[in-house]
Sequence to fold (287 residues):
Amino acid sequence: MATAIRIDGKAKAAELSEKITAETAALARDHGIKPGLAVVIIGEDPASQVYVRNKQRRAAACGFHSVKHALPEDVSQEDVLALIDDLNGDDAIHGILVQLPLPGHLDEGAITQSISPAKDVDGFHAFNVGKLALRQPGLRPCTPRGVMSLLHYYGIANRSMHAVIIGASNIVGRPMALELLLTGSTVTVSHRFTRNLEDHVRSAELLISAIGKPGIIDSEWIPRGAIVVDVGINRLPDGRLVGDIDFASAAQRAGWISPVPGGVGPMTITMLMKNTVQSAKQFAGLA
Fold:
C-alpha cells in the first residue's frame, strides 16, 4: 500500500530562515535597520519558557535585536498594559508578542488587543484579522500563514478544493479559514457543536486539524489521496509529542501528510520572524 508524501516543515523553515537572515543583513547594510522583536512572558509555565527560548534563538540567528520581558505570575493587568504601551512607542521594536496562555487573573483579549496593529507580529489583533477577512492581508496569524507557505512549497494548489478545518480557535481555525478562502478553497469549519464529524472529514480534499486532542479523527475517515495537515501538538504521558491524527495509519490513506513534530511547528516560528521583518520594512517605508 502506498504511503503519503511527508510534508517536511523543518526543511521549508530552514530554507525560509536563510532568506530572512539574508534580508535582515541587507536591511542593516543598506538602510541601517535592525528588526526588533520584544517577547513578553508572564509566570513560569514550562512549555511557555521553551517556546520563548526557541523564538529568541531563532530571532538571534536571523540577526534581530531581541529582548525578553519576564514578568511575575502575579503581575497586575495595569503593569502589563503599561509595558506594552512602552513597547508600542519604542522605535527599536518592530514586533511585540505576549506568550500565551496568561495567568487566569489577566484579560487575554485586552492585553493582545493593546499591542499596536503595526507591531502585532502574532497576527492576533482584530485589525489584522479584519484585514485578512477583507482580502487585504498584512501581518497574518503565524500558524495559518505557515500552513499556506507549506502548501505552496510543495506545489499543492488548494484553489477549488474542499478544505475541512477541525477547530475554530481565534489563533488557528478561524484565520486558517480566511487564508483558504483568500486562495479559492471551499471551506468547512467543524467545531465542538458540529454534528456528524465523520461525514465532514470524509468529504475533505484538504484536511487541517487544530484541536489539540489525540485521536480526534479516525484515520479510516480520511479519503484516499487527501492532503492532511496536523496542527495539533499533544504531549503523551510517556513524554512523546503527537498530533491530533495517528500519523502511521493516516499515512496509509492520505496523499500528503504533515508529521508532529516537524511539520507545521517549525513554520509557525519562521512566520513570526517573517512578520517581524515585514513590520520593520513597513516602519521604514520600504514595504
